[in-house]
């Protein structure tokens, strides 16, 4: 192996198709249910929120979905994203492992989220939609959809979880620079937001509440659709461009991963890096260990129940089967805002149930410690969310050191932390604490799960 650090693909190697893992599942995904009838929903049920192209991508079982040429043209602004060999991190750890990371912070918005924001805005523009509403936690998704709305001439309204809205004012400034409106959630703009504030005026917000507000706006306005940055099948589909590129770049490095690591909140960046490798394994290829790393303060995969639940707190969405902490669960306001969601993507949850992946949870101070070590070795300051993946990769590298194994570890560095420096300041000053979720609140939220009789 050479001493090469960067593995780059030219623009003409941007993938022409996204990969759909539903084509290779040994057991199909449980259906999405209408909360009123408890019957599987059809395309018409989703039509008030999404354009038909995205609805069809949500349900297709075709292995490849073509990426439209106008989307690939915009992708050229940052794709193909680089793959790095983390040689300096390996040296710092004293590990025989070979650590590679796919770096998605090179996008205009600084994260992996434009991989789906661009196609979602494109399909909505094609359908004649003038406005989009959405939610955001840390602001990565809100920033990305704001960017995409600007590209395709669509007005964007973003409901940002209040604790993140207060923590990250520069995220809001970037959204506004791209032309979007950014509101703290719960807000006074929606009936549901006002009802939450009436009960608790200082409510810190949650992604479930912000989703409810965004869905309410879309459902009440014919010219407005809803856009989601994670969880749904079509979102995970768009993110697979990450893993597809990584496969080709690892070929350039003449290696194949033994372990693939990604952080998990709703599941989009994890799916993006992991699904192409899981799919290759399901089709008879090598089967790397797949490790999802989540925050200990919002541990849907490791502590959640696999059950049908609402995707939002106001119960405006259909019922999906997923690992959930309960739709009314409000996690503590830890800094990895993009990972503060009560449920895990149905596809990721399904793969966990099938035994095709593992999940671990770490507290935020451990993850920031890993992120700082990474920054000092590799030079990139990671987003707080990405620190979880770094922590997972470091743990695997230290295991290799103990066992004397030279395994290949791949992880997704899903975004930079340049707008999250208040979190780093808190970490260095000793003010970053490891909040634990309220066990009683978790028990109450889980006790309120919908009653669904499955055949």
TrEMBL record:
UniProt domain Tryptophan synthase beta chain-like PALP: residue ranges: 77-415
Protein keywords: Amino-acid biosynthesis, Aromatic amino acid biosynthesis, Lyase, Pyridoxal phosphate, Tryptophan biosynthesis
Entry's EC annotation: 4.2.1.20
Top EC class for this record: lyase
Cofactor: pyridoxal 5'-phosphate
GO cellular component: cytoplasm
HAMAP family attached to this UniProt entry: Trp_synth_beta (MF_00133)
Record NCBIfam families: PRK12391.1, trpB_rel
Subunit annotation: Tetramer of two alpha and two beta chains.
Protein name stated in the entry: Tryptophan synthase beta chain
Species this chain originates from: Azoarcus taiwanensis
Gene field: trpB
């Amino acid at each position: 192996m050479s001493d090469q650090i960067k593995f780059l693909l030219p623009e003409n190697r941007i993938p022409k198709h996204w990969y759909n893992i539903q084509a290779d599942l040994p057991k199909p995904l449980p259906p999405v249910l209408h909360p009123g009838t408890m019957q599987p929903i059809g395309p018409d049920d989703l039509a008030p929120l999404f354009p038909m192209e995205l609805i069809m991508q949500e349900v297709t079982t075709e292995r490849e979905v073509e990426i439209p040429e106008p989307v690939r043209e915009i992708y050229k602004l940052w794709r193909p994203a680089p793959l790095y060999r983390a040689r300096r991190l390996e040296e710092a750890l004293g590990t025989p492992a070979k650590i590679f990371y796919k770096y998605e912070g090179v996008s205009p918005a600084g994260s992996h989220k434009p991989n789906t924001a661009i196609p979602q805005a494109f399909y909505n523009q094609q359908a004649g939609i003038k406005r989009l509403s959405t939610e955001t936690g840390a602001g990565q998704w809100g920033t990305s959809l704001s960017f995409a709305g600007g590209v395709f001439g669509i007005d964007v309204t973003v409901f940002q979880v209040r604790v993140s809205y207060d923590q990250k004012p520069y995220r809001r400034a970037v959204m506004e620079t791209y032309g979007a409106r950014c509101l703290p959630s719960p807000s006074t703009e929606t009936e549901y937001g006002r009802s939450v504030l009436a009960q608790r005026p200082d409510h810190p917000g949650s992604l479930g509440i912000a989703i409810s507000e965004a869905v309410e706006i879309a459902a009440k306005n014919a010219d407005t659709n809803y856009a989601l940055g994670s969880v749904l099948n079509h979102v995970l589909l768009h993110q697979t461009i990450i893993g597809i590129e990584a496969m080709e770049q690892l070929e350039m490095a003449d290696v194949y991963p033994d372990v693939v690591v990604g952080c998990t909140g709703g599941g989009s960046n994890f799916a993006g890096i992991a699904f192409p490798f899981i799919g290759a394994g399901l089709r008879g290829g090598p089967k790397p260990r797949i490790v999802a790393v989540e925050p200990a303060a919002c541990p849907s995969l490791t502590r959640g129940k696999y059950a049908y639940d609402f995707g939002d707190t106001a119960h405006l969405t259909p019922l999906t089967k997923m690992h959930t902490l309960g739709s009314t669960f409000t996690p503590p306001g830890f800094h990895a805002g993009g990972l503060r969601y009560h449920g895990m993507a149905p596809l990721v949850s399904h793969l966990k149930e099938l035994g095709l992946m593992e999940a671990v949870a770490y507290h935020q101070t451990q993850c920031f410690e890993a992120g700082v070590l990474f920054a000092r070795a590799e030079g990139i300051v990671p987003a707080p969310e990405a620190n979880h993946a770094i922590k997972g990769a470091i743990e695997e590298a230290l295991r290799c050191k103990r066992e004397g194994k030279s395994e290949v570890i791949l992880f997704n560095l899903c975004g930079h932390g340049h707008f999250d420096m208040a979190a780093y300041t808190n970490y260095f000053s000793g003010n970053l604490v490891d909040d634990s979720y309220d066990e009683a609140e978790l028990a109450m939220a889980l006790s309120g799960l919908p009653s669904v009789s499955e055949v």
